Amino acid sequence: MLYEFDGMTPVFGKETYISETAIVIGSVAIGDSCYIGHGAILRGDYGSIEIGSGTAIEEGVIVHAPPGKLCRIGERVTVGHGAIVHGSLIGNGSVIGMGAILSIYSEVGHDTIVAEGAVVKMRQIIPEEVVAGGNPARVLRKIAERDREYWNMAKELYVNLARRYLSLGMEKVKDRQTPSLDL
After folding, report:
1. Where are the alpha helices (DSSP H) in the chain?
2. 3-class SS at 58?
3. Residue 174, pLDDT score
4. Which of 73, 109, 118, 124 is the most buried (most CB within 10 A)?
């Protein structure tokens, strides 16, 4: 789960849940009340990763920084299932949709939504408070109040889920206890 590499050790804040199936390597700093999902890979091996408080890195996400550079993910960010983040910056309050790709040195402004499956190209900058989608990603519209309301609710779900995992834990189901499904 947590791995030291080349003298660099991951650090994380209070009430942060990191799945035992996630891989967090090297120079990675994670804030308070974060959720790092099952199968996520955070590679701080030749670059550094910083993740702000209240952020959810969902299942199967890959985060990596270019050599000697920083990948900064802000506070209260949601990075959806299976996304690939290799960019420089994701601003506070932003949402990266499932399966989206943020290429090397890309930047996403604060309170911005990058749609599912979108591709933010190398060095591309997506401005603040917009919805962007497509390949290559382009601005589709300004953020709406309904977007803010929905994503604030969704962000709280993951903060609460992190707390539940920390308090309840997971228990492996033993082979003899596995129920069968008769179809």
Report:
1. 145-168
2. coil
3. 81
4. 73
Domains of the chain: 2-168 (2.160.10.10)
Torsion of CA 159, 164, 170, 171, to 10 degrees: -170
Helix (H) or strand (E) holding 139: strand 138-142
Residues 24-46 as b or e (16 or more Cβ within 10 Å = b): bbbbbebbbbbbbbeebbbbbbb
HSE-up of residue 134 (Cα within 13 Å, Cβ side): 9
The residue type at 46: Y
| 85 beta partners | 63, 102
pLDDT at 181 over 80: no
132, 118 in Cβ contact below 8 A?
yes
Joined together, the tokens standing for residue 139 give 């601005």
Report whether pLDDT(176) > 70: no
DSSP count for the chain of H helices, then E strands: 1, 20
